[in-house]
Amino acid sequence: MPYKEHLSKDKRFKKLLEKHEGFTLKKRKNICIYLCASIMSQQLSTKVADVIYQRFLQLYDGKEPSEQQILDTPLPTLRSIGLSNAKTNYVHNVARFSLEQGMDHKKLHKMENEEVIAYLTQIKGVGRWTVEMLLMFALGREDVFSIDDLGIQNAMIGIYKLERTDKKKFKADLLRISDKWSPYRTYACIHLWHWKDNSPAK
């Protein structure tokens, strides 16, 4: 794992690396479905999110639906699988955006990280954090740091003895420390989540 050698230069981080053989990133082709699943899973435990996603697939005979199939599914039907009113609308928003603007993985792979974030956060219901997870776990980008993720913040507080009282200084500290991890900040985030045992990895 080439990233481990680089991250090991950080003495405190090195201890986290010793507990795991290493992680690999996957790339996914169906970005629309990944984004819909991400929205469904927000603020839910992994177990509950998995159940809802399986119910979602059962609406389409267990297969990943097309964007048009999602749009053709009435909102009450989506609510019946356990989605909130807001989430049903957001899922439709994603499918509509994918049809009208395009969300093909080849198109997104040509964009820089911040371009992908700017592009996909045009969709109502899709925030920066959601796109950062997509960059990591669907597009396989190696250098993403999700600064607003609570799990990452809490892990860094624990490891680097940071204080959250002064928000501006806290954010500056997070960036200062994470800059050393570049160009492998995604792997650093994954190790931090596992250290806190609250990984969002799908």
Task: Explain what the structure shows.
By secondary structure, this protein is mainly alpha-helical. It folds into 2 domains: 2-24 and 145-196, Orthogonal Bundle (Endonuclease Iii, domain 2), CATH 1.10.1670.40; 31-137, Hypothetical protein, domain 2 (Endonuclease III, domain 1, Orthogonal Bundle), CATH 1.10.340. Helices cover 61% and strands 0% of the residues. The protein is built from 13 helices and no strands. It has helices at residues 2-7, 11-17, 31-41, 46-58, 67-72, 75-79, 85-100, 105-109, 113-120, 128-137, 150-160, 167-179, 185-196. Helix 3 packs antiparallel against helix 7, helix 3 packs across helix 10 (128-137) and helix 11 packs across helix 13. The longest helix has 16 residues, at 85-100. It is elongated and about 55 Å long. The relative contact order is 0.15. The model is unreliable at 198-202 (pLDDT under 50). Residues 40-197 form the HhH-GPD domain. Its EC number is 3.2.2.21. It catalyses: Hydrolysis of alkylated DNA, releasing 3-methyladenine, 3-methylguanine, 7-methylguanine and 7-methyladenine.
Highlighted features:
61% helix, Endonuclease Iii, domain 2, mainly alpha, Endonuclease III, domain 1, 2 domains
Detail the poorly predicted runs.
198-202
Structural class: mainly alpha
**Tally of separate helices:** 13
CATH architecture of the largest domain: Orthogonal Bundle
Q: What's the Cα radius of gyration?
A: 18 Å
Order of helices and strands: HHHHHHHHHHHHH
| Beta-strand proportion | under 5%
Oligomer: single chain
Spatial separation of the terminal alpha carbons: 21 Å
* CATH class label of the largest domain: Mainly Alpha
- Which term fits the overall shape? elongated
Number of strands: 0
Spell out the CATH superfamily of the largest domain. Hypothetical protein, domain 2
Protein name: DNA-3-methyladenine glycosylase II
Catalytic activity: Hydrolysis of alkylated DNA, releasing 3-methyladenine, 3-methylguanine, 7-methylguanine and 7-methyladenine
Family: Belongs to the alkylbase DNA glycosidase AlkA family.
GO molecular function: alkylated DNA binding; DNA-3-methyladenine glycosylase activity; DNA-7-methylguanine glycosylase activity
